[in-house]
């Protein structure tokens, strides 16, 4: 006869084994300077994330459900916003944000060929939704050392076609939010804050991601907290939230949460609506009022996100400390490097430390990053540099306001190094020693 164990006992046994596995892996971790790679970013987790994910897999609900709702509740509470929707990536969150602002279901939607002010120094998917929605990006330059949209140049770019400002807080460095929001208010413009690299950064005591009509987050493995892949879109506006839910979920009109649609639906009127052209009482679940996508994550990802969010305060502390130590190191060589600057009201939780090689340095970005990579210290470009120079963007319609002097400077001379919590004290010391020896040994 088969001995049928209680399901909870089996589950507990599996989860205990997961904890054991985590501990074994941890014990095997070691860092040998010059032999072990220093990653610029990565997942930082412990047994709690592994247990949460496996537990969710064992539930085998799989699609978005109870963990998704729990994550959204925790995340909106943390950020202090009314609505949060999880997505399968930060790129998807950006796509939803701009698509909602073009949706006929909102009061004052943008129309094709309307203009959106943004920067050409960009991660591609901050810009792409503008192009994908048939809008015209209008590029203004960034500041040389904050790497953010130059708020002082926005007003000169505004025409009667301008409808929105879409930008990222570059590498976690808060943009000049008081100025941006003031301009947006005076000119009646939508604001989308791409906060994918700026979770837990704040400006004037207010968290980034709480200023605009929408903010977006990424929970890709490199980001401040992770679900592996994943993202979120947040807003304080009910109308925008409903449209975002629709566009995320195939464009449907029904605003039940996934898995909630049964019987009469959450609204109690699932079969009571009448839409022009559709039969009386056509199931609201199959009424489509937007041309949407399916951009939902799995519940399993959200189970991980719940645990990661608990670690955010500690992560932020380490990011700030790692940034400070690397900043102090680069400061010794200010004659050859432009150091990053944050505004007086900004409190960044840095995604990374951006460094620009001065034109007069006597060595190139390529020289310096290939040196660091030879020391197994990972380096990254500040995304696309000037995205207009990227092959895929040669034929897009756009307008430039002023010039893109500092945007081009990023393309030519800027790179970044990681500050993520996986960079331990010994890795940090190795990084600093390697940077110093570039100069001590006159490698330049
Ligand atoms: C500023 C910015 N926006 C958007 C994204 C896209 O996020 P995801 O990789 O989750 O699609 C990234 C990715 O790193 C990013 O840095």
TrEMBL record:
Q: Report if keyword Transferase is assigned.
A: no
Query: One Pfam match, by short name?
Result: DegT_DnrJ_EryC1
Read off the CDD domains from this record. AHBA_syn (cd00616)
- Which terms are listed as keywords in the entry? Pyridoxal phosphate
Instruction: Work out whether the entry's keyword set contains RNA-binding.
Output: no
Q: Which residues form a coiled coil?
A: none
Q: Which PANTHER family match?
A: DTDP-4-AMINO-4,6-DIDEOXYGALACTOSE TRANSAMINASE, TRANSAMINASE
Family designation: Belongs to the DegT/DnrJ/EryC1 family.
Q: What is this protein called?
A: Lipopolysaccharide biosynthesis protein RfbH
Organism per entry: Clostridium frigoris
Classification of source organism? Bacteria, Bacillati, Bacillota, Clostridia, Eubacteriales
What gene makes this protein?
rfbH
């Amino acid at each position: 006869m088969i001995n049928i164990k209680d399901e909870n006992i089996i589950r507990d046994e599996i989860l205990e084994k997961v904890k054991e596995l985590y501990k074994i892996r941890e014990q095997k971790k070691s860092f040998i300077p010059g032999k072990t790679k220093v990653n610029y970013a990565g997942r930082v987790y412990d047994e709690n994330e592994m247990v949460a994910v496996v537990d969710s897999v064992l539930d085998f609900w799989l699609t978005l459900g109870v963990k998704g709702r729990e994550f959204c509740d925790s995340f909106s509470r943390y950020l202090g916003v009314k609505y949060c929707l999880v997505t399968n990536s930060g790129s998807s969150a950006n796509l939803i944000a701009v698509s909602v602002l073009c949706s006929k279901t909102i009061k004052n939607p943008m129309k094709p060929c309307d203009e959106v002010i943004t920067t050409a120094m960009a991660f591609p998917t901050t810009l792409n939704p503008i192009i994908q929605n048939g809008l015209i990006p209008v590029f203004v330059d960034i500041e040389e050392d904050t790497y953010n949209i130059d708020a002082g140049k926005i007003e000169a770019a505004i025409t009667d076609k301008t409808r929105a400002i879409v930008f990222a807080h570059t590498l976690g460095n808060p943009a000049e939010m008081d100025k941006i929001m003031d301009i947006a208010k005076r000119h009646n413009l939508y604001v989308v804050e791409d906060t994918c690299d700026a979770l837990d950064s704040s400006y004037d005591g207010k968290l980034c991601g709480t200023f605009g009509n929408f903010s977006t987050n990424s929970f890709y493995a490199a980001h401040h907290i992770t679900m592996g892949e994943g993202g979120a879109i947040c807003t304080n506006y009910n109308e925008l939230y409903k449209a975002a839910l629709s566009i995320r979920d195939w464009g449907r009109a029904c605003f039940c949460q996934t898995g909630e649609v049964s019987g009469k639906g959450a609204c109690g009127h699932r079969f009571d609506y009448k839409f022009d052209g559709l039969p009386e009482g056509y199931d609201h679940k199959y009424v489509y009022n937007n041309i949407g996508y399916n951009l939902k994550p799995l519940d399993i990802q959200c189970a991980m996100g719940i645990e990661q969010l608990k670690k955010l305060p500690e992560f932020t502390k380490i990011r700030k400390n790692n940034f400070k130590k690397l900043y102090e190191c680069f400061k010794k060589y200010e004659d050859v490097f432009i150091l990053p600057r944050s505004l007086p009201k900004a409190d960044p939780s840095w995604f990374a430390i951006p460094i620009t090689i001065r034109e007069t340095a006597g060595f190139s970005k390529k020289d310096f990053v290939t040196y660091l990579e030879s020391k197994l210290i990972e380096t990254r470009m500040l995304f696309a540099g000037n995205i207009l120079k990227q092959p895929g963007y040669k034929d897009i319609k756009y307008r430039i306001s002023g010039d893109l002097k500092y945007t081009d400077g990023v393309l030519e001379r800027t790179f970044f190094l990681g500050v993520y919590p996986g960079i331990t004290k010994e890795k940090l010391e190795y990084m600093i020693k390697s940077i110093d020896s570039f100069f001590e040994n006159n490698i330049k």
